[in-house]
Design a protein that fits this description.
alpha+beta, elongated
């Protein structure tokens, strides 16, 4: 349709300018937040620019929804101010039909955002994080303390006071063995266990078992029974945000199988899908708001875009925090703000001038 092409020709130049502005703004915020650290460690300009380069895809991922919101609100507001929409409405074309091309752009942008995040943003942001830690001399520790691990479908439970990643040792080890129904079999305690590449070698281990109605204790000779890999006990230094969707799904499964806390990782996994729909959400909001400004269109569109984006991201942050803490289901924490803002956008659209 000619009007669709005309609307998109008005929309895309504004979007390109807006996304360029927001990407530059986000990149500068990240740069200045770490600038004093770079200067402290005498990081060269070339290395700083390299970090900024790998942060650009992440900046674009954050900037695209805000830019779509601003560009569509400004475009529709500008058409209202020039009385072009009045002519369109006079010809009998409803507002929702005129705006359907912008909704289509939002839908395509959501699909693009999902694959762009998975294939481009995740790998480049991982490189950016690694470079930042290298240049700023930051190290991740993989030691862990106060660990409880369920293995073999819950029939073996490890309790460890401290795991030393460098030496591959478990300190203050207790192992509870039980049946599939939860009946107690034995309790094994050892001050230390060392990994020999295949299994855990126990030092001065004692085992507690019921014998003839009495709980008896006896020393345990070393055996190759306990073969859980040391990675099971180390601090989980891998975040869902640093993994592609398939890898993130495997991480959630591994955490669940090991009896480790997985609610936060599951919430982030669902959030990977829900975040990609933000472009569609903001398009619906912007269409409903776009024609409400007849004066100071640039300023009002910018303020409305930033306000709506801030409200959305804050509500999303709160719902995700509640999901990580277990107050609400992970899938609700990830998708609740999306559905709420879609409903708000539809209600605003119903009251929009036509």
């Amino acid at each position: 349709m000619i009007l669709d092409r005309y609307l998109l020709r008005q929309f895309f130049p504004v979007f390109i300018v807006a996304v360029s502005m927001f990407v530059m703004l986000l990149s500068l915020i990240d740069l200045f937040a770490n600038l004093w650290r770079y200067l402290n460690y005498e990081v060269s300009l070339k290395e700083i620019l390299r970090v900024c380069y790998y942060y650009l895809p992440k900046s674009f991922s954050y900037a695209m929804p805000i830019s779509l919101l601003f560009a569509s609100a400004y475009t529709l507001g500008d058409l209202y101010a020039r009385n072009e929409l009045t002519s369109i409405f006079s010809s009998g074309i409803p507002f929702w039909r005129f705006s359907v091309s912008l909704v289509a752009v939002g839908l395509l942008a959501s699909v693009f955002a999902f694959f762009f995040e998975d294939r481009v943003v995740v790998p480049t942001f991982r490189i950016k994080s690694d470079l930042s830690r290298l240049y700023l001399h930051q190290q991740r520790t993989e030691n862990n303390s106060d660990i409880v691990i369920k293995a073999r479908n819950g029939e073996v439970i490890y309790s460890v006071d401290y795991y030393d990643h460098v030496n591959n040792t478990l300190n203050g080890l207790s192992i509870v063995e039980q049946t599939a129904t939860g009946s107690f079999i034995a309790l094994l305690r050892a001050p230390q266990a060392s990994w020999n590449g295949e299994y855990w070698v126990l030092s001065n281990a004692l085992i507690y078992q019921w014998e003839n109605g009495l709980l008896r204790v006896r020393p345990v000779e070393n055996s190759d029974v306990y073969r859980e890999h040391p990675d099971t006990f180390r601090r989980n230094a891998v975040a869902v945000e640093d993994l592609q969707v398939q890898e993130a799904g495997f991480l959630v499964q591994d955490l669940r199988a090991a009896g480790l806390p997985f609610i936060g990782a599951l919430a982030e996994f669902y959030h990977r899908y829900s975040f990609s729909t933000v472009s569609l959400v903001v398009m619906i909001l912007s269409i409903s708001m776009g024609g409400r400004f007849r004066k100071n269109i640039l300023l009002m569109s910018l303020l409305a875009s930033l306000a709506a984006a801030v409200i959305f991201y804050v509500s999303e942050m709160i719902s995700m925090m509640m999901a990580r803490l277990g107050y609400i289901p992970p899938i609700v924490g990830a998708w609740f703000p999306v559905f709420i803002f879609i409903i708000v956008g539809i209600l605003l659209l119903r009251n929009a001038k036509t």
